[in-house]
Design brief:
The complex is a heterodimer of chains A (about 140) and B (about 160). By secondary structure, chain A is mainly alpha-helical. Chain A is about 80% helix and about 0% strand. Chain A has one domain (about 20-55, about 70-135). Chain A is built from four helices and no strands. The longest helix of chain A is centred in the middle third of the chain and has 42 residues, at about 70-110. The N and C termini of chain A lie far apart (about 45 Å). The model of chain A has no long low-confidence stretch (mean pLDDT about 90). Chain B has about 160 residues and is mostly helical. Chain B has two domains: about 10-70, no CATH class; about 85-160, no CATH class. Chain B has five helices and two strands, in the order E-H-H-H-H-E-H. Chain B has helices at about 10-35, 40-70, 85-100, 105-125, 135-155; strands at about 1-5, 130-135. A two-stranded parallel sheet of chain B has the order 1-2. The termini of chain B are far apart. Mean pLDDT of chain B is about 85; it is low at about 1-5. The chains are: A mainly alpha (about 140), B mainly alpha (about 160). Chains A and B meet through helix 1, helix 2, helix 3 and helix 4 of A and helix 1, helix 2, helix 3, helix 4 and helix 5 of B.
């Protein structure tokens, strides 16, 4: 059980590392160019991994609907936006606001899809996140 | 490049960051769907591949505008090009953790903790050549609220009730 916990924490750390590194690259180039390098380097790394362990292109892949392939293009904008923001509002603010936005939009997506499990906790969570955001924004 | 007393943040930047979180939800949604047809490795590989093409197309479309705004910028060190390696490792760690007793909610909650702790250290010492920032008490209070709300949603809200 220790290993999964360690891996899950490390995954979060690496999300921060890549945003920091891409942010640094965008200072010397541009956020979109940083996002391009992030994707092509990740693509090469995952290609090498997939070719060495096998199973890179599984059988079911051809059956996936076209919209399932939209994630990559959204990711380009996501990485570019993160690189642009981190140089302006810092790592903590970027991380917290992106997490907040992910949580609130996730609850909205659930509601749109008719999933209402854990609604009370979700609504309370959204309220806390919005209160936190309002606090960041109050005049000092 | 130090900002001892952080200046008031631009509300548009905060809104942009919040909206970026919405993009992340969509991305995770689509990539998760692709992963169900294939597997986690394929989903991330395909997303990086289509993303590379999409970035090239966007760069081509925006080229005239960029060329006008090009100015002298500091040289980037080689490591700055390697952010994608970190992303690729994240995929493997996450798919391992999700399939352990931690499940999705535990993986998300611990990942969130790791991300926030790293970001505090990164801001404090200006890691990887970005500006240093020190949080004030109000920033810390905002952090507690946002993290508490996120933990509520991850552990007791979305799909975990």
């Amino acid at each position: 059980m220790t290993l999964p916990i360690l891996f899950a924490c490390l995954a979060g750390v690496l999300v921060g590392v890549s945003r920091q590194v891409n942010g640094r690259l965008s200072l010397s180039t541009s956020p979109l160019i940083a996002s391009f390098w992030n994707h092509i380097v990740g693509f090469v790394a995952l290609s090498i991994l997939g070719l060495s362990i096998g199973g890179l292109i599984p059988e079911g892949a051809a059956d996936a609907p076209w919209h399932a392939y939209l994630g990559g293009s959204i990711g380009v904008v996501f990485v570019a936006a993160g690189s642009w923001l981190i140089a302006r509002i810092g790592a903590v603010n970027t991380a917290l606001l992106v997490i907040g936005g992910q949580m609130v939009s996730g609850v909205a997506l659930d509601l749109l899809q008719g999933v209402s499990a854990g609604l009370l906790a979700s609504v309370l969570g959204v309220a806390l996140i919005l209160a936190g955001m309002a606090l960041t924004q109050r005049r000092r | 490049m130090t900002t001892p007393s952080a200046p008031r943040l631009n509300p548009l930047h905060l809104l942009a960051a919040f909206g970026t979180g919405g993009l992340l939800t969509l991305m995770v949604h689509f990539n998760g769907e692709l992963g169900r047809y294939g597997n986690a490795l394929f989903s991330s590989w395909a997303a990086h591949g289509t993303g590379t093409v999409a970035a090239l197309l966007l760069l081509a479309v925006l080229y005239p505008w960029r060329a006008r705004n090009a100015g002298a910028k500091p040289h980037a060190p080689l490591w700055a090009y390697l952010g994608g390696i970190s992303g690729a490792i994240t995929v493997m760690l996450t798919s391992f953790a999700v399939n352990s007793p931690l499940a999705l909610s535990g993986t998300l909650a611990l990942g969130l903790a790791g991300q926030v702790i790293f970001s505090i250290v990164a801001d404090r010492w200006g890691l990887f050549g970005l500006p240093m920032r020190r949080p004030d008490r109000r920033d810390l209070a905002a952090m507690v609220l946002i993290l508490a709300g996120s933990a509520l949603i991850i552990l007791f809200g979305r799909g975990n009730a």
